[in-house]
Amino acid sequence: MLLCLVLLLPLSTSFAAVPTRVAVIYPDVSAPYSQVFEKIIEGIERHPGITVVAHRLSNGDATQRADDWLSSQNATAIIALGQQSHKVARDLKPDIPVIVGATLIAPNGLSGVSLAADPEAFFSRLGSLTPPVRRVFTVYNRKQSGWLIERAAKLARKYDIELISKEAESSREAVLQYNAVLDMVRDGEDALWLPLDQVAPGKTILPSILKQAWQKRLVVFSSNPSHTRKGTLFALFPDHRGLGLRLAEIVVDSIRNPNRGPVLEPLKALKIAVNMRTASHLGVNYNSRLREQISLTFPLRR
To answer: What is the pTM of this model?
Structure first.
């Protein structure tokens, strides 16, 4: 299943005088998914010290074709976009830095940016996009999102939030955990975070979660704007050009510091989607300054 591809750090001007040739590999997909990768590449090209050469991966002998192409490019780094490119890059084992993006990954020896949104981006918006929240519940798969929940637990203390996380190894177990969470929440006081995860609620359980959330005045937020269209209060989703620029910055840092170990970041270049009907139900009113920060609102106006 293709995920909805769904902060910018200050640029260093000293590197601009040393151009870096970056090979970008990404899957050959049709619109609208192809537009996501094109926007990410535009973001990479915004870095003044980088020249981009790009290659679309075919579904057949992708690894061999990519290897042949890379050998002729004289690139100093590789950016692999999407799950297929991530696998190809690992198979190639090149002797130049490989940076991964536009896919949902856990730490695995490569540097890059996961599609999983930074928990701090959510926590810092509680109380402005939402009513006051002191407890946040979440259900997650440890193998996929354990690193993110560990980060979230540290950040929760910074924001005076009690994070209550429930592990689930399968979608079936996740349903049981969501039902348990919905029995625990306090009406009008708590929030439920739906991370990008293999045990995130699908179309079977999500309607039930949203129905009970409405009845209990429970704040629900996620990384998927389609959830917001269906009724969650808000979502944080990728700013694709911002993601591209951050990947470029990581390339520069990797070349400058070759002995530094791999670093995987959560996504910090984000846009905001809000369901205004849900916000009204929860008694949240946004001022003009905050409205300007919102990229997408639901229900969509016709």
So the answer is: 0.92
Rounded Cα distance, 217 and 215, in Å: 6
CATH 1.10.10.10 for domain 20-113+239-270, yes or no, is: no
Q: Does the domain spanning 117-237+271-298 belong to CATH 3.40.50.2300?
A: yes
Dump pLDDT digits (tens) for 111-152: 999 999 999 999 999 999 999 999 999 999 999 999 999 999
Report residue 79: phi and psi, to 5°: -115, 120
Give percent above pLDDT 70 in the chain.
Answer: 93
Q: What angle do CA 101, 106, 111 make, to 5 degrees?
A: 50
Residue extents of the structural domains in the chain: 20-113+239-270, 117-237+271-298
Burial of 26 (0-12, 13-18, 19+ CB in 10 A): buried
